[in-house]
Amino acid sequence: MSTKPAIGFCGLGAMGFGMATHLVKSGYAVTGFDVYAPTLEKFKAAGGIPSTSLSDSAKEKEYYICMVATAQQAQTAIFGDEGILKGLPKGATLLLCSTVPSAYAKSVQKELKDVGREDVLFIDAPVSGGAIRAADGSLSIMAGASPAAFEKGKWLLEELSAPAKLFIVEGGVGAGSNMKMVHQVLAAIHILAVSEAFGFAARLGLNGKDVREAVIESQAWSWMFENRSVRTLGEDYFPGASAVLIIIKDTGIITSMARSLGFSTPLCSIAEQVYFSALDRGWGTNDDAGIVRLWTADPVSNIQTKLSDEDKKAKLDLVINLLSGIHLCAAAESIAFAKHIGLPLPQLYELAIDAAGGSAMFKELGAKMIPILEGKSGESGGDLSALAEKLTSAINEAQAIRCPLYLGNGALNLLAQAGKDVDLGSLLNLYAGR
Amino acid sequence: MSTKPAIGFCGLGAMGFGMATHLVKSGYAVTGFDVYAPTLEKFKAAGGIPSTSLSDSAKEKEYYICMVATAQQAQTAIFGDEGILKGLPKGATLLLCSTVPSAYAKSVQKELKDVGREDVLFIDAPVSGGAIRAADGSLSIMAGASPAAFEKGKWLLEELSAPAKLFIVEGGVGAGSNMKMVHQVLAAIHILAVSEAFGFAARLGLNGKDVREAVIESQAWSWMFENRSVRTLGEDYFPGASAVLIIIKDTGIITSMARSLGFSTPLCSIAEQVYFSALDRGWGTNDDAGIVRLWTADPVSNIQTKLSDEDKKAKLDLVINLLSGIHLCAAAESIAFAKHIGLPLPQLYELAIDAAGGSAMFKELGAKMIPILEGKSGESGGDLSALAEKLTSAINEAQAIRCPLYLGNGALNLLAQAGKDVDLGSLLNLYAGR
């Protein structure tokens, strides 16, 4: 582009603020709207143009990015009386980067037409990667739109994403949101797994710092674990960076979509119930890393380990076994769901291995699951009985000390259901219905 | 019997006290031991002979009944330095009525031999039916023993049980405990279901009394609901009649046995995790009906319903739908487990329909499950899609109001896993492994 176009932006939360200020740093004039005044001041200090009116923030903007928290907020922001559409000029490009149900993304497209604003080029473009990558313009983006909209708006998606991390998902508006949804199956399960693992570890007498170190170097690694564990160790929950209410919104999208299709998402549903119980404790606006408080009131980084080196190693192994088993089943749940709704599996794989849903198990075993689901592998592949046995050792110990492991038990029951000679094929088959 | 023999008894808890005093009322001289002194006084007042020594309580007793809470307690009581065996005369009959792992019951038999007390006739005889039926001698009893032991002790089992409610389970010592275990699959799930249903109802704005009335007359009836709901409405949890720790012991027996066999018990495992979380709240010695406090701090019988009659009816239906779906899957989980370990299914059916595991769903659909599992029914039988749809309506509403439904979601995921045309056959097939 020869001259940099002005951009409108609404929703300056943890992710949105990073995205908007990244664009500012890249030389764009960004007019930002948020309902929270202190954020607007911070945005101004970062070189942005603050706006206290949604319609004003959209005036004369050929490009507009909506990064609010929910579909409900997006609906008001876009179509409200003094909303974005009021200000948005003819032929502008509108990006919706929030995580919303694909049905909602499609409804925006339809409503634009219904209200006589077919001229607006709409891109369904949810993102992943966390606040840091938002701020340095290296997000993963899953986008669905018409070819015309991509022609006009692709450069902006590229500004926000890392090279090779912009995924144009076939299928038009809604396809981006569907891809985000199946990605969030991983996120929703992995987030609770972080707290479940730290909680279990605390009751085993392990210090959180030792747990973090051991997990990150092991096959139990996940992006969420590496990311959230910093806040777990620092008790940085108030508000932290990602509220329980956010993952509740995402699990809601997943499980309600699954229900409407008659598809089972057992681990995601278990996670959702535990998130609801965290909400009942009054932790909705706290960081999701704080869910560890369901297991322990003491800070996990303060625990004085009184174990011998050998015992400590054995107990750390149990935590690793727990996480590995959960992540394995999360990978199956996500990939099987993607298959069920007809998404391209290799694209999900490429996306998730380097986004917030990534895990070592997904990377290693997800790669083997895809050819099985695509019917390209004659073998059912990958004997899982060793992993099942390891998970069993963790569950046995948890039962002995009466420690709830919601996901761990859910995962082990899935592996048991898959049968004695559990392998990737029989595990995936659990999701196929009959 | 011409003269009534003296009987020794240890473990005068809610169930044991009822059993022992029933024997007193029936004219037997019963010497009772308990570690809790006030209970001994109460027992004396009821006509029993109190004893402060286990070995003394067994002296010159041709019959002895052990009704302690756990296998660990039984082990100490029977084999401890000053235990039952110390006092028990040669050729006496020993009934173990506690709920214990079948492996433990077998180990008692073996250890009797190892310590040179093969002369003792040992009967593995867990019971069900609640404190009231214990006290009037109309319990359900599942007994496994040698023919010689039954010959000598059957009359005593008959004294404690209702006619037709004494189940002699083929397979010797251990078979009674196995039957109790699969029965407790129902109990373990139904107990949490009571609290989940009342908790959901409370959040829907329903008064607990209305809920009780509606459920008891519906297909959502269960023995546990009818029994526990009295205590839920009266907040009679301190200590109530059946502690959370008791059902935790039973779920532990179930899930650890299932794990060792590679069998899946998804709903029972979910229930166990929630019981552990109740324990974390400090409710271990409270009545299990008090688990409703995970959902609501207010007494459910105090809720002022502000709903129209129509709305009230619709919301009560949601609660009924929730319970029916859970009870359906509980029936499948229990019966499939019984099949897996080779227990006679018709006997389980006869036992459970009139014991603490009973439910309207078990009675109606359990009867249809058995011929399917026995291969006697060509059809897979009983379309369940209407029940699945009703359960879905409850889950949708719960999600909208962010109410955790651990079991409800677990059950719906099982029905979804069973496939689009879910029927009894496809549901049971989930438990078959592959």
Protein model, in words:
The structure is a homodimer of 434-residue chains. Chain A is of the alpha/beta class. Chain A is built from 19 helices and nine strands. The first copy, chain A, has helices at 14-25, 37-45, 54-58, 71-79, 84-87, 102-114, 130-135, 147-160, 175-203, 208-216, 223-234, 244-261, 266-280, 309-340, 345-353, 360-373, 385-400, 406-417, 424-429, and strands at residues 7-10, 30-33, 49-51, 63-66, 93-96, 121-124, 127-128, 139-145, 161-168. In chain A, α2 links the parallel β2 (30-33) and β3 (49-51). In chain A, α9 (175-203) packs antiparallel against α14. The mean pLDDT of chain A is 96. At the A-B interface, α12, α13, α17 and α18 of A face α12, α13, α17 and α18 of B. Chains A, B: Residues 174-294, 318-420 form the 3-hydroxyisobutyrate dehydrogenase-like NAD-binding domain. Chains A, B: Residues 7-162 form the 6-phosphogluconate dehydrogenase NADP-binding domain. Chains A, B: InterPro entries: 6-PGluconate_DH-like_C_sf, 6PGD_dom2, 6PGDH_NADP-bd, HIBADH-like_NADP-bd, NAD(P)-bd_dom_sf.
List keywords for this structure.
Rossmann fold; globular; homodimer; alpha/beta; 434 residues; N-(1-d-carboxylethyl)-l-norvaline Dehydrogenase, domain 2
How do you describe this structure in short?
The structure is a homodimer of 434-residue chains. The first copy, chain A, has 434 residues and is α/β, with parallel strands linked by helices.
Described by the principal axes of the CA atoms, the overall outline of chain A is: globular
- Percentage of residues in helical conformation of chain A: 55-70%
Number of strands of chain A: 9
Mean of the pLDDT scores of chain A? 96
CATH top level of the largest domain in chain A is Mainly Alpha
Radius of gyration of chain A: 22 Å
CATH architecture of the largest domain in chain A, by name, is Orthogonal Bundle
GO molecular function, one term (chains A, B): NADP binding
Pfam families (chains A, B): NAD_binding_11 (PF14833), NAD_binding_2 (PF03446)
Protein name (chains A, B): NAD binding domain of 6-phosphogluconate dehydrogenase-domain-containing protein
Organism (chains A, B): Massariosphaeria phaeospora
